[in-house]
Structure formats: structure tokens, C-alpha cells
Amino acid sequence: MRVPEHHYRSSHAASALVLVGTTGIVLGMLLAPDTLWLQLHLSRLGEHGHLSAALFNASLVVAAICLMTMGILVRKDMYGIDMPRGAELIRNWFISIAFCWIGLAVFTYDQHPHIHDFFGYGEFTLLCSLMFFLKNISDAFSDRTHYIGYIAVLTTGLLMAVYHLTHSISLLSVEMYGLVYAYAWFLSLTNDISRQRRHF
């Protein structure tokens, strides 16, 4: 049975996530009162209560809602293509990452550095773990999605280690590199499901 295009909701949620997240970062960069964030990290864009910080943090919360929605719809779509193995675990993993994003927005680094770091490294660990173990969790996704995840985990993990051990690169560069791969992975994962639903 051919499923109408409007049923491809998980891919819509992924696209909305990328759009909202990118818009928030760009607005934060353009409206930031200084350029210190270039030497530090993305979290700097959400500090000190400026308009740019409010927009950046609000976009992070909205992106988190998009990620929660994506997780719920990925689960539903996996059942829709009769490949439910791991669906609940993947949904719960995405929701946990989304809560970390909300934590990052609410507990800004300048006010609550330790709590902010907990959520920051928490979402990094959760996302990398899901990328790395996805093939063991479910057989619903393509080799392309798995390769993107493996490359993201290995290279971003290496860059993070270089940052902490040598400080020869900025945390911002690690974050931006990982963010691009995360967006690509979200889009690839949901596109896999959409493509299968067309022929189901």
C-alpha cells in the first residue's frame, strides 16, 4: 500500500529541528554584543540576558521540542513499516537528549556552569552512544545512516580529546563540526523511514 506523503512526519520534524536550530545559532551570532563566543563555545551565545541570548536559548528549547516530536514519530513510523525492534528505546533516547537541550537553555553557563556542563556532556554522550549502537538496536536504517553516525562519533570524539588534552583547537570548532554531523544524521535517519513508507 502506498502511504501519502503527508504521513512522513518524522522527516518533517527533523527538517524543522535543523531549521530552528540553525536559525537560532545564526541569529545569536549576528546579534551577539561581542565576538568572544568565537574564542569559546556556542553556549556563550546564550549568556548575559541579551536579546541574542534569549533568541538562542528559545530556539534551543523549540529544537528540543522538535527532537521529542521526532522521537515519538520515529517510533510510530517504525511500527508503520513493520520494523518495531528498538523503536521505544530510540524514542526514549531522543527524548532524553531533548531534555538535555532544555537544560542547556535554562541553566546557562554563566549562571550555572556545573549544571550546564552536566547537560552538555550528557547530551554529547547520549547522542554519540545512540549513533554508535544504532545498528545493534534496530535494523530499520540504511548503511548511510550508520556510516554518518560512526564517522561523527569517531571524529568528534577525537576532536574533543584533542581539545581537552592540548587546547590547540577551540570547543566551538568541535561543537560546530559535531552539529553538522548530528543534523545530517537526523535527516538521514528519518529519510530512511520515509523512503521505506513510500513502498510499504
From TrEMBL:
Give UniProt keywords alphabetically.
Membrane, Transmembrane, Transmembrane helix
Q: Reply yes or no: does the keyword Membrane apply.
A: yes
User: Is Calcium one of the keywords UniProt gives this record?
Assistant: no
TM segment ranges: 12-31, 51-73, 93-112, 118-135, 147-165, 171-190
**Signal peptide start-end:** none
| Record protein name field | DUF998 domain-containing protein
- According to its UniProt entry, this protein's organism is Candidatus Saccharimonas aalborgensis
